[in-house]
């Protein structure tokens, strides 16, 4: 409450008027932003939802996540609500409609629910809150209808083979095929140093229809970078069919990067195979496999496989030794040094099938068949001798 004495009134009158004006503006600013979004209350919710399909945001004005979603939700409403669609975009303020929100089992903000026409029980949205994902969810709920195709951004165009992705184009672009993506920040010195090499890599592969080379600015498109758990710049990820397969950690020269691409595509790159064995970076020396590539990757020769989890302390300690082991067998056509990340969705089934019950687990395969589990010391010499003994015993047969 604002209390003023008679003596104060004369000098404070203009400030009181200004204060009340600002309060009135604060009270209406949120409504003025939602010019395209339908706003429902307990009195009209059931009636309106019964008329057509609805996508509803249950929110609280003070909620930070709600405030960040606001512009995207309004953009979704602008496109959908002003066209002759069978879908309406709406919102309910749970601070004023607590009974309605309780009836709809809203326990956190924002809660997004899709209501099919005539139904009072909504389907909860659980994806990332960006425009392409929201619209894809709507299309799925409507049975694959194309009524919101105009919302999805056009595909990106490559410049000398390099694609610049955004929040609107990323998900659709990487949803199928093979992708090598640079997650970066413009102010990052290492990113600036890598930039011309990354451009060169894209240009050298511009006629390769199997893989795309792209980049995304994490300062502008944070939701994508958050989705892929990007903790530092630059981060280089290999993505297949929308899923992270591997993180590149080798040297950032054009030759090393191109060799890595060849490895991940399963190509026989003569140029890469003629590289000096004494190179410091060994992205090509360790083969990263998943459920989809495992059978083919180990079908010939000896394959020494490390099943691991990135958070595992023993795995972290073994990692540099495993890379050195891969380096020792580089160029040996009869031996593959392999790693499988069991935390990846594309590898979990494989690890279960291979009876991996702890990390790291080291199995040796010959021509695709498991022949031994390694339980010895994890130093380089012992690991190397283990492989060589199996290699020699095979040669003597």
Description:
This is Thioredoxin domain-containing protein. The chain has 397 residues and is an alpha/beta fold. It has 14 helices and 15 strands. It has helices spanning 6-33, 45-49, 64-81, 98-103, 131-141, 170-174, 189-204, 222-227, 254-264, 270-273, 294-297, 313-328, 345-353, 380-396; strands spanning 38-39, 53-59, 87-93, 111-115, 123-124, 162-165, 178-184, 211-217, 235-240, 243-247, 287-288, 302-308, 335-341, 361-366, 369-374. A 5-stranded mixed beta sheet has the order 1-3-2-4-5, with helices on one face. Strands 6-8-7-9-10 form a 5-stranded mixed beta sheet. Strands 11-13-12-14-15 form a 5-stranded mixed beta sheet, with helices on both faces. Strand 14 (361-366) and strand 15 form a beta hairpin. It is elongated. The model is unreliable at 1-32, 145-152 and 267-284 (pLDDT under 50).
**Helix count from the secondary structure assignment:** 14
Categorize the overall geometry: elongated
Q: What percent of residues are in strands? A: 15-25%
What's the mean pLDDT score? 79
Outline the biggest β-sheet.
5 strands, mixed
- What structural class should be given to the helix and strand makeup? alpha/beta
Strand order of the largest sheet: 1-3-2-4-5
